[in-house]
Amino acid sequence: MNLQLTQDGRLRHLLTLDGLPRAIITQILDTAESFMDVGEREVKKVPLLRGKSIFNLFFEPSTRTRTTFEIAAKRLSADVVNLNIATSSQTKGEAILDTVDNLSAMHADMFIVRHSQSGAAHFIAQHVAPHISVVNAGDGRHAHPTQGLLDMFTIRRFKGEFHNLTVAIVGDVLHSRVARSQIHALTTLGVPEVRVIGPKTLLPTGVEQMGVKVFHDMEAGLRGCDVVIMLRLQNERMKGARLPSAQEYFKFFGLTPEKLALAKPDAIVMHPGPMNRGVEIASEVADGPQSVILPQVTYGIAVRMAVMAMLAGTGNA
Amino acid sequence: MHASLPDANTLIARLADAIAPTLTPDTLIVGIHTGGVWVAERLHGLLQCVQPLGTLDISFYRDDFSRIGLHPQVKPSNLPFDLEGRAILLVDDVLHTGRTVRAAMNELFDYGRPASIRLAVLIDRGGHELPIRPDFAGLTITVPDHQNINLSRLDDGHLTLSLA
Asked: What phi and psi, each to the nearest 5 degrees, are found at residue A270?
């Protein structure tokens, strides 16, 4: 049973990129492309989702993701309600469904869900009425599908194709839902070489089974790359004794102009944000000519519009 | 009943002749994807219009979106001019219910406030469901609802009309 697709293979919920068919991913990217120009208009709105209510259900704090979902929904003319819900860990399971039931009673059409627990969006998707769609905006270490999609959109915009690329994902893959979503999307789209680079303590065991090459050394890992994706290093990882210090990490795994020079000369540098300058990435690189970090944010709006429009077009079928 | 439709090029020429005396130099021609763009391209040439040609894809403005979903191949709208205060000639291949034209006008107004919009269609086939009528029509006929008029473009660029 695939919760994400309808019987006839259309998008029903967006929960993970794992197993999402290539045709659907491509359709989302193509649709996002046509939404790109809406942001340039005098009236930055199209009436597709007029009269629909979208609830941003954020059980975990977020600025960028929540804001871009909100802008995307508003550009589609939906009504948006933002809920930042602090959870008490004991009663989480019950509390989520109570919240969802209450909001459903307010005639919600779509939930955008961010939660610190893996599987939260799945859990809600299993529970909601048939006309309601759920978008996972990040669940624990599991998945962040719209981030993965906007990263694919960025790569396609700058590189055109996927079948001839070498892509490196650098840093804390172990705790990163972004990295998981990226790896699934890159392999589905036919990228022949996906690499993960990081210290042993920050790479999940058995990550090779996801179809990636593992490197523990930046010099070897970055050589010949077309795309370099840096991941955010969570400060709390330092306390967990997985790393000696931020300075030490930067020395070995921080992206500096010297290390970037090992990749192809036209390689692009991506980061899902928020960045730790001087920890995983040097400011010269983050603000440099090869950085596409700010375009990623802009593209995130078009990609989220595409996802919401496709879901709303199926939800009421 | 199944009388064959006239040649598309004849109709376009007829349409251009009708439009020409009324066309001001600042008029912007805008075609609606896909057939309307083909007709608009021809008119743009025949009328020797000096303004750039605009194109509209009205998929994001359709009123049947919640029933049929998003069209899989939405083309970007391209209006390479500021249409504030301008005269617009909106072009489509076939006028039927009028819903496409309504959607196109809604989209145009999201780009600015034109001074006027006139509508030119290759064929007005009747069956209107909205108070929308063409200012110029190459041909006015009545076609039963279950039939479709189709404009297609061959590889050599030739336009042909068919009834099915």
From this structure: -125, 155
B1 is a domain residue:
no
Tell me where in chain A the CATH 3.40.50.1370 domain(s) lie.
Answer: 22-144+297-315, 145-296
pLDDT at B136 over 80: yes
ipTM score of complex: 0.71
Residues in B closer than 8 angstroms to A34, CB to CB, are 57, 59-60, 74-76
Report residue B65 as tokens.
Answer: 């979106």
Task: Tell me what the mean pLDDT of segment A267-289 comes to.
Answer: 96
CA dihedral B125, B126, B132, B134 (to 10 degrees): 40
Does residue B70 form part of some domain? no
Residues of A whose CB is below 8 A from B75:
34
Residue A3 distance to chain B (closest CA, Å): 19
Q: Measured between beta carbons, which residues in chain B are less than 8 angstroms from residue A48?
A: 60-61, 65, 70
Q: List CB contacts (< 8 A) between A312 and chain B.
A: 65-66
Residue in B70, B73, B110 nearest the CB of A310? B70
pLDDT at A131: 92
Q: Which residue of A has its CA nearest to B113?
A: A42
A309 → closest Cβ in B70, B76, B111: B70
Q: What is the mean pLDDT of chain A?
A: 92
Q: How many domains does chain B have?
A: 1
Q: Give the closest-approach CA distance of B70 to chain A in angstroms.
A: 6
Going by DSSP bridges, is the β-strand pair B87-95/B28-32 parallel, antiparallel, or unpaired?
parallel
Residue A141: both structure tokens together: 């270490």
Residues of B in contact with A47 (CB under 8 A): 60-61, 106
Contact A171, A216 (CB under 8 A): no
| pLDDT for residue A26 | 96
Model pLDDT for residues A182-199, shown as the tens digit of each residue? 999 999 999 999 999 999
Of residues A83 and A266, the one with the higher pLDDT is A266
Residue B97 belongs to domain with CATH number: 3.40.50.2020
Percentage of chain A lying above the pLDDT 70 cut: 94
* Backbone φ and ψ of B108, nearest 5°: -55, -40
Shortest alpha-carbon distance between residue A76 and chain B (Å) = 9
Residue A20: CB atoms within 10 Å: 23
CATH class assigned to A145-296: alpha beta
- Measured in angstroms, the CA of B8 and the nearest CA of chain A are apart by 30
**CB contact (8 A) between residue A42 and residue B67:** no
A22-144+297-315 has CATH 3.40.50.1370 classification: yes
Domain that holds residue B41: 8-63+75-163
pLDDT on residue B103: 95
State the amino acid at position B161 in one-letter form.
L
Up-side HSE of residue A315: CA atoms within 13 Å toward CB?
Answer: 24
CB A81 within 8 A of CB A107: no
